[in-house]
Amino acid sequence: MEVSTASRIPLEQTGTTQHYRYDTRTTPPDVFEDLSATEWNRLTWSDLGRPYLVDNYSSEREKWENRHGEDMPVEVQWEHFNRRFHSLFMEDPDEATVRARQDLMEHLKEADLHGAVEVVRDLMQTKIWNYVHRVQDAVWDPRGKRALFEGLDVEKPNILFLGAADGYEAMQLLAMYPGGHAVLVDYDEFCKTDRFGNFPEAYPFLGHNPATGSHTVYHREDFDIDFVVSDIRDLDYGKEFDIVISVGLIEHFPDEYKPLVFDFHRRFLKPGGYAIMTTPRRQLRSKLFYVAMGNLMNYGYRELMDARQLGLYAYENGFDIKRAGYIKAHNGLVTQKR
Ligand SMILES: C[S@@+](CC[C@H](N)C(=O)[O-])C[C@H]1O[C@@H](n2cnc3c(N)ncnc32)[C@H](O)[C@@H]1O
C-alpha cells in the first residue's frame, strides 16, 4: 500500500509515533565513536579478554525443555525470540500502562501477590523497552547506522542480509545507495510474514536522491527486496553480492563456530565487496538491559563484546577492517576480504 501524503515525514524531523521514533535530520551529531585507526595486528586476546556471556535465560525455555524432555533447539530458540521481540515493537506503551494498572488493582483486590509481582515486572519491561527503542532509538539507531554505512564505494548494490529478522539495516543501506536490491535471509518464517512483513510502511528512511544529489526520504515500498526463508548454512549463491551484512548474529556463535560464521560473510562477496557486521556492546547499560529483559528475550547463547574484540575476531578470520567503532547499542565493522 502506498504511504499517504499525510503520513509522510519530511526532512529534518524527529519525533515519536506509538511504536517508534523517526529521525530524518540530515546534520550531525551522528553517534559513531570511530576506532578505525586501531592497529589490529597488534591486538591480542590476552590484552582484550574474552566476551561477556549473558546467561540469564528465559524461564519459557526451561518450561519448553521440561515439556519436551530435550534441549530447546537453536532454531526454536529464535522462533521464541522473534515472537517476543516483535510483540515489544507492536505494543502501544500508553495502552499497556493503563492495562497494567487495572490488572494490578485486580490482583491486589484478590490478595494475589504473585500475580501483582508479574504485572509490575511486565510493566517495568514495557517502560525499559519504551525508553530504549522509542525515546533513545538505540535499537534501530538510524543515525548511528547511517554514520557506519557511509562512504561505501558501491552503486545500486546487491545486498545479502544474514539473519535478517525485520530487514531494517538492508532498507537503510538501500536508502543510502538507491537502485539496489536486497536478499533478506532468515530461517524463521515469522520474520518474513510478520517482522519484515508488517514492518511499518510509513517509517521514513533518510537516504540519497541521485537525481538531485541531496537527501530524500524512502519507505519500505520503495525498495526491491526478496525474503528467503532458509538456514544461512544452506545458501548456494555465487560471489554476487556487493554487501553482505549481519546485525546481531556473530555473538550467538561460540568461539569454535566463529570461523564458520565469518566464512558466511565472505563466501558470497564479489571481489572488493564489503562485509558489514554489528554485535551488541559490552557495556553496563547492555548488561542491565539483559538482566531486566532476559526472561523475555534470552533463549540461547549470547555474548556481549566490545568493538576491539569484534574487530580482532574479524581480523583473525581474514578480513581487513575499513571502519570500526561504536554506535548506540552495537559495535560496528565495515570490512573487506583480505
Ligand atoms: C538477534 S536476531 C538479529 C537481530 C535483529 N536485528 C532483530 O531485530 O532481531 C538474529 C536473527 O538471525 C536468525 N538466524 C539465526 N541463525 C540463523 C541461521 N543459521 N540461518 C538463518 N537465520 C538465522 C534468527 O532467526 C533471528 O531472526
Automatic annotation (TrEMBL):
Highest taxon of source: Bacteria
Segments of skewed composition (Polar residues): 1-19
InterPro entries: SAM-dependent_MTases_sf (IPR029063)
GO MF, one annotated term: methyltransferase activity
Record key words, sorted: Methyltransferase, Transferase
GO BP term, pick one: methylation
Keyword Protease: no
Pfam families xref list: Methyltransf_23
Region described as Disordered: 1-25
Protein name: Methyltransferase type 11
Species of the source: Longibacter salinarum
